[in-house]
Amino acid sequence: MASLFANPAGRNFLGNSAEWYKLTILAFLIINPILFYMVNPYVAGWALVLEFIFTLAMALKCYPLQPGGLLAFEAVIIGMTSPDTLKHEIEANLEVILLLVFMVAGIYFMKNMLLFVFTKILVKVRNKVLLSLIFCFMAAFLSAFLDALTVTAVIIAISVGFYSIYHKVASGKEFHHDHDHMHDGELDKLNEEDLEGFRAFLRSLMMHAAVGTALGGVMTIVGEPQNILIGTQANWEFMEFFFRMLPVTLPVLIAGLTTCVLLEITGILGYGAKVPPKVLNIIVDYDAYTSERRTSRDNASLIVQGLVGVWLIIALLFHFAPVGVIGLSVIVLASAFTGITEEHQIGHAFEEALPFTALLVVFFTIVGVIADNGLFAPVTNFVLGLDGHGQITALYIANGFLSAISDNVFVATVYISEMTTALANDVISRDTFDLMAVAINTGTNIPSVATPNGQAAFLFLLTSALAPLIRLSYMTMVKMALPYTIVMSIVGYIGVAKFLEPMTEKLYENHYIEHHHEKVGQARDAGEH
Length: 529
Hints:
Layout: H1 8-12, H2 19-39, H3 41-57, H4 65-78, H5 83-92, H6 94-108, H7 111-124, H8 128-145, H9 148-170, H10 192-217, H11 225-234, H12 238-266, H13 277-293, H14 296-317, H15 323-336, H16 343-347, H17 353-372, H18 377-384, H19 388-405, H20 408-424, H21 430-445, H22 456-462, H23 466-469, H24 474-509, H25 522-528
Helix pairs in contact: 2-3, 2-4, 3-4, 3-17, 4-17, 5-17, 6-9, 6-15, 6-17, 7-9, 7-13, 8-9, 8-10, 8-12, 9-10, 9-13, 9-22, 10-12, 11-20, 11-21, 12-21, 12-24, 14-15, 18-19, 19-20, 19-21, 19-24, 20-21, 21-24
């Protein structure tokens, strides 16, 4: 069988990936049509979902776009889903695509300012527990007002900046030299141990920050894509959305930040790594080096980038335009006023986001397979068969489980549509619908931190250029997210089961929120979306 890949075409197939990996993908491509035509489309659909998750888990072996894309292409060819369904999914998620294309590129033009700010934090805050808490809390705070993908792009840019600084010096070069931090060929053997320690340090910071995006992203209508969808369906404004989520999200936020501190103190599951003294000294020297050589023009660029950052926060907070369009404005403003006018300079900004954007469209094909083959139908029917309080808690559990293995935006779309139909048909009351909407939003946002495919921000981190640099694999992310997943999911469930209904009544009594009496019309909402 090994000779299968001995010829040029075989060697070209999935490039330098291991032969066992190539054989596995080929086996998937052979098995899927057999399952679809000769066994059952439902079984074939679940097999495809698991196969796609496998490609994500092996992201460091082979970028998932190619093997996942082959699986998705085959799914369309054999009829597991259709091009029309894929088009519908792309249209429904166009804002997310535009966000990735333009917002992530926009962050590229602000990286000097971000690196300046966070270098000062790293130099001044030597306590790893406090530093981790700052990263987690800042990610949560920013995600509540921006969005998780934007914040993830920010922390990736910061970490790549830190990594490249040390890697350059560890390879025997000066700060002003050009250097490719993607390759370790010039790395001094004496510095390898420090580099591994630095990688562990950055891994823990990135995971704290990534979880922070989930902690903050669930709290407001602008935090995650599905929040906007759910809030629009329910006719909730910004503050009403915040207050309705608070009985669940506030305990989860406190539990998440507490978990962050405990993980750093105990040092379990890959946490607790401190920045090696040699690395810290280099970053301190870099800070002094750049401060000494910073010209008035450099200072002007930093001020412009800071002002563009303020514009970004205000524009996103008040929804002046779709997120991707605001990202485009960031590119225009930041590049125009910092002297970046050549095409090749601008092109670098899009290198990080476009591979992931393509992967996301492939993922929409898998989502189409889930929709067209009713893979979630048994769970949906079970939940709708329950009554009252049990239905609300079951919605949280079902949305959490399904979001962890598929995509939380898709799961939220399915369930809020089902609840809207139930409201329109007088199966549930409007007050019950509002409670269910909270359960759906928290269910899709909180337990989905369990896996990288659960949240777009986590998947973006896994497939970013940073992940291989700091050795952040799929299973490493799952392992490091595990304590957060357990604590946040349990506290979220307690919030939905014990706090949601009584605290919502208190909010009504104190007029922080008001009862809605109208029904949510699907036709109207479909038109708005």
